[in-house]
């Protein structure tokens, strides 16, 4: 929005210029919270904001003439910046002229000379009075005190300035009145009217009765700025009808006391030829036109003079590059900022005029931003698409300003915009399924496996913590078997594991970031328990109390190969640790029996003698583990007449227990479940790819 106010130049500090809160449509109590601040474009502070009342106040007394000189308009440009949200408002304050200056002549007394032979109608130019006020408060007219011989004529110059001249109405007679005393009064158009006077003394002379005449008396020249020093501006055309010294003209600049030599620093005048040339660089931006007054004076006695008025108007060329002003930049900006969010307020200005001062701003098309024109020479840089900090954590934004001159002039300014992270990415495990192995009977606190997850966010949004979920798949909570380091994801055992009790565990692990709201993901670690030889073989047949022996009768005439009995043993371990072998312990006497290494069958190895007594055999069962474990049983074999063994009754081999059947069933279910989950995951990954 742009606000427009006006204030007379003579108001005291504290004068209320306008009600900002009302005109902006905001509540007064919100101004302080939104950090309303005032920025003067010229760098000078003339105003202040009363945040309590929401009004714009004068900070110092204004002097229009000091601020704007002779400019027909006088405006001061301010900028109001408010935050939350960031807004920029332009305020233009017109300084109204007050009739606080009276007209003043360059000299309080003016001495003129006129020959007595001057014809009625002869004109005597007078100094122009000056009034710093503008408009109706500037000089309105001139008045001359009553005279029988002279009257006042007022001409209007090309720039609107009124030029007084004394006109001879009646022939003069020097012998009667050699000197005439008049009073010239300059009146302005203010209310009340102010005036200034100058005393005019006219001496009547003899002889040289033709003054130099400038043709035309008022002229205009167009000149490009920055022309080389010494460029000819014009040559004055002045004629004098007299001859000899009375017709020899010399030229000089005519200056005033209030602006002594302003144009004389920029232009030179040849006193003999009347050529006006530049003697310093001309700058359109400093002044677009110059009014030059030249006095043409002959060498007669008395000397007569004429006056030439030249207006030099400069043609602007594109000699100034645009200037970029970053009023405010909001950095960092959240990566989830909505399209249209204001990032920066940018002002641009060019001291040239016309097309040379028309500026357009540009930024790179590939950036997710665009420029929106707020009002004249002010732009807003807003988001034009989604931002993603994980793809670009910041942008170097180059703003380029190009004018419409020929040739074009451009300038650019680069600033860095940081993108702030929001928690928009969940942590990801390196693999959704992992496999780990651990030896049974490992000490509590043994490291099992380390899961690894990553989060592309930063700061607290990327700070990860790990935990184990209880999925209820085991009879006992999984947390009683394993724990996890919440910082590095290392899984440790809580107690020693028993392969014979649990052969595999599914450990669901959750990783969660510290963002708000927190995001998480899960993975499953299958922990396989590796068997170790921690169970000795157990003899299930023959079953005898510890320290006792098993008695077995056989026919006394049993032939070699006769099956005496069979030793049956089991081992709770698995694999090589459960491979059993049977053998007889060495004894002092040679025994007529042998045991099959793998089956445990005891057979007659050689024919028995009729009178042979009982034989004591120690059968040792040993597993294949490292170190190897063993068990033994004592069997006493007694040869008897007519003894027949019924192995269908005596050899009562153990059957599979319900616990072994359930364990097998659990293993089958686990393998099928793992296979199904793996197939589903592979299908999802393939579909996503």
UniProtKB/TrEMBL annotation:
GO CC aspect terms: plasma membrane
One GO-annotated biological process of the protein: homophilic cell adhesion via plasma membrane adhesion molecules
Alphabetic keyword roster: Calcium, Cell adhesion, Cell membrane, Glycoprotein, Membrane, Repeat, Signal, Transmembrane, Transmembrane helix
A Pfam family reported for this protein in Swiss-Prot or TrEMBL: Cadherin
Gene3D superfamilies with a match to the protein in the record: Cadherins
Repeat as UniProt keyword: yes
Ranges that cross the membrane: 663-687
Ranges of residues in domain Cadherin: 6-105, 106-214, 215-324, 325-429, 430-539, 546-656
PANTHER family linked: CADHERIN-87A (PTHR24028), PROTOCADHERIN GAMMA-C5 (PTHR24028:SF349)
Stated name of the protein: PCDGM protein
Taxonomic source organism: Callaeas wilsoni
Gene that encodes it: Pcdhgc5_2
């Amino acid at each position: 929005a742009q606000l427009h106010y006006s204030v007379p130049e003579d108001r005291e500090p504290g004068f209320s210029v306008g009600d900002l809160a009302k005109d902006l449509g905001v509540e007064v109590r919100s101004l302080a919270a939104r950090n309303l601040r005032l920025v003067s474009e010229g760098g000078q502070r003339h105003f202040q904001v009363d945040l309590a009342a929401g009004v714009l106040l004068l900070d110092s007394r204004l002097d229009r003439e000091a601020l704007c000189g002779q400019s027909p308009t006088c405006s001061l440009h301010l900028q109001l910046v408010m935050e939350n949200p960031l807004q920029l408002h332009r305020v233009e304050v017109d300084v109204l002229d007050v009739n606080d200056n009276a007209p003043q002549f360059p000299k309080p007394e003016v001495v003129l000379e006129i020959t007595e032979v001057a014809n009625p109608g002869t004109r005597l130019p007078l100094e122009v009075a000056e009034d710093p006020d503008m408009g109706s408060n500037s000089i309105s007219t001139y008045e001359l005190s009553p005279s029988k011989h002279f009257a006042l004529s007022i001409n209007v110059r090309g720039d609107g300035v009124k030029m007084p001249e004394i006109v001879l109405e009646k022939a003069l007679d020097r012998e009667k009145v050699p000197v005439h005393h008049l009073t010239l009064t300059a009146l302005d158009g203010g209310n009340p009217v102010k005036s200034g006077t100058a005393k005019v003394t006219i001496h009547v002379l003899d002889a040289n009765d033709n003054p130099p005449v400038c043709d035309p008396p008022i002229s205009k020249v167009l000149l490009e700025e920055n022309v080389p020093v010494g460029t000819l501006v014009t040559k004055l055309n002045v004629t004098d009808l007299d001859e000899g010294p009375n017709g020899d003209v010399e030229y000089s600049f005519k200056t005033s006391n209030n602006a002594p030599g302003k144009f004389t620093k920029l232009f030179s005048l040849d006193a003999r030829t009347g050529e006006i040339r530049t003697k310093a660089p001309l700058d359109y931006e400093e002044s677009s036109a110059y009014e030059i007054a030249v006095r043409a004076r002959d060498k007669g006695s008395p000397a007569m003079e004429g006056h030439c008025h030249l207006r030099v108007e400069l043609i602007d060329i594109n000699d100034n590059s645009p200037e970029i002003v970053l009023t405010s930049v909001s950095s960092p900006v959240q990566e989830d900022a909505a399209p249209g969010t204001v990032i920066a307020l940018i002002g641009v200005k060019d001291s040239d005029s016309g097309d040379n001062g028309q500026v357009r701003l540009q930024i790179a098309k590939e950036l997710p931003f665009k420029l929106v024109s707020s009002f004249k020479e002010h732009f807003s840089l807003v988001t034009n698409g989604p931002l993603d900090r994980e793809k670009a954590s910041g942008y170097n934004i180059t703003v380029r300003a190009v004018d419409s001159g020929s040739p074009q002039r451009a300038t650019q300014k680069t600033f860095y915009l940081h993108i702030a992270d929001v928690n928009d990415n969940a942590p990801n495990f390196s693999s959704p399924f992992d496999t780990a192995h651990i030896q049974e009977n490992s000490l509590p606190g043994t490291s099992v496996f380390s899961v690894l997850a990553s989060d592309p966010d930063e700061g607290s949004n990327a700070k990860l913590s790990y935990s184990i979920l209880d999925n209820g798949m085991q009879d006992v909570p999984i947390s009683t078997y394993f724990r996890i380091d919440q910082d590095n994801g290392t899984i440790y055992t809580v107690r020693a594991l028993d392969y014979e009790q649990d052969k595999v565990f599914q450990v669901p692990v959750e990783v969660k970031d510290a963002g708000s709201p927190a995001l998480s993901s899960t993975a499953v670690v299958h922990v396989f328990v590796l068997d170790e030889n921690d169970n000795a073989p157990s003899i299930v047949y023959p079953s005898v109390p510890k320290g006792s022996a098993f008695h077995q009768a056989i026919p006394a005439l049993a032939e070699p190969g006769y099956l005496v009995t069979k030793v049956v043993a089991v081992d709770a371990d698995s694999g090589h640790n459960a491979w059993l072998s049977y053998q007889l312990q060495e004894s002092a006497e040679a025994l007529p029996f042998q045991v099959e290494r793998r089956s445990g069958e005891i057979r007659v190895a050689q024919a028995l003698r009729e009178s042979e007594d009982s034989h004591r055999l120690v059968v040792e069962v040993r597993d294949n583990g490292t170190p190897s474990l063993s068990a033994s049983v004592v069997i006493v074999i007694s040869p008897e007449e007519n003894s027949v063994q019924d192995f269908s009754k005596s050899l009562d081999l153990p059957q599979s227990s319900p616990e072994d059947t359930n364990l097998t069933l659990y293993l089958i279910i686990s393998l099928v479940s793992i296979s199904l989950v793996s197939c589903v995951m592979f299908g999802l990954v393939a579909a996503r790819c």
